[in-house]
Amino acid sequence: MMVSFGCGMSALAYALSAATETAVHASRSLRGRAQVMFPDGWHLREALDLVIAYLLAVPIGLDREREDRSAGLRTFPLVALASCGFMQAGGASLMDNADATSRVIQGLTTGIGFIGAGAIIRQGGRVHGTATAAGLWVTGAIGCAVALHAYAVAIVLSLATIVTLSGLQLVKKDREPPAR
Questions:
Q1: SS3 at position 67
Q2: Which of 38, 61, 66, 63 is nearest to 142 (CA)?
Q3: b or e along 30-41 (b: 16 or more beta carbons within 10 Å of the residue's beta carbon)?
Q4: Which of 4, 65, 153, 179 could cross-link 73 (Cys pair, CB 3.0–4.6 Å)?
Q5: Contact indicator for 136, 111 with CB cutoff of 8 Å
Q6: CA-CA distance, 164 to 133, in Å (whole number)?
Q7: Helices marked H in the chain — which ranges?
Q8: Which conformational region is residue 68 in: left (phi greater than 0), alpha (psi within -120 to 50 degrees), or beta?
Q9: Ramachandran category for residue 129: left, alpha or beta (phi over 0 → left; psi -120 to 50 → alpha)
Q10: What residues does each domain of the chain span?
Q11: Is the distance from CB of 112 to CB of 118 less than 8 angstroms?
Q12: 91-105: buried (b, 16+ CB within 10 Å) or exposed (e) per residue?
C-alpha cells in the first residue's frame, strides 16, 4: 500500500506534537503545586505519561496494520504502554538509582526482543518481519523515554519510525528471491 507524504504526514506530525505539548504543559503546570490525584492514588503526571506513550505508538501500529504485518494496531501501543508502565512501577526508587533503571531497561529490551523474534519469519531464502521487530523495539524505547520524561526523544523516535517504515518503503525495491 502506498502512503502519501503530502499533507498526511505533516498533519500526523502536527497532531502528535500538539497532543504531546498539551500533556507536557499540563504535567509541568503541576510542578511545585499539590499534585492532582485520581481516586486510586495515581498522580495525573503518571497517567498522562501512559497516555502519551500510547498515543505516540498508535501511528506506528497503524502503519504496520495497513501493511498487514504480524504485529499492528494493538501490539505497538501496548508495548509502549507496558514499557512506560514498567518504568513507572519502580517509582521514585527506580528514578533515583541509575543501576536499577538500567536493569529495568535491559529487561524490557530483552523481553521486547523476544516479542520481535516472533514477528520474524523465514520463507525459503527470504526473511520477513525484521522491520516490524525493529519497530517493536523502538516502540519500547518510546515508552521508556516517556517514563523518563524525555518527551523530545520519544517524539523523535516516533516520527523517525513512521518515516522509516512508511516513507522508506516507497524507495525500497521489491526484489525477487535469488535463483537457486
A1: coil
A2: 61
A3: eeeeeeeeeeee
A4: 65
A5: no
A6: 13
A7: 7-28, 44-66, 75-89, 91-95, 98-119, 130-147, 151-162, 168-171
A8: left
A9: left
A10: 7-171
A11: no
A12: eeebeeeeeebeebb
**Cell numbers at residue 141, please?**
524505547
Are 112 and 83 within 8 A, CB to CB? yes
Digit-by-digit pLDDT tens for the chain (180 residues) are: 334 444 444 444 444 455 445 444 444 444 444 454 555 555 788 889 999 999 999 999 888 777 766 666 788 899 999 999 988 887 766 777 888 888 888 888 888 888 877 778 777 888 777 888 888 899 999 999 999 999 999 999 999 999 888 877 667 655 545 544
CA distance 133 to 179: 27
Which has the closest alpha carbon to 42: 54, 57, 30, 24?
30
At what angle are helices 44-66 and 151-162 packed, to 10 degrees?
A: 10
Q: Which residue type is seen at 66?
A: R
Tens-place pLDDT, residues 75-115: 889 999 999 998 888 776 677 788 888 888 888 888 888 88
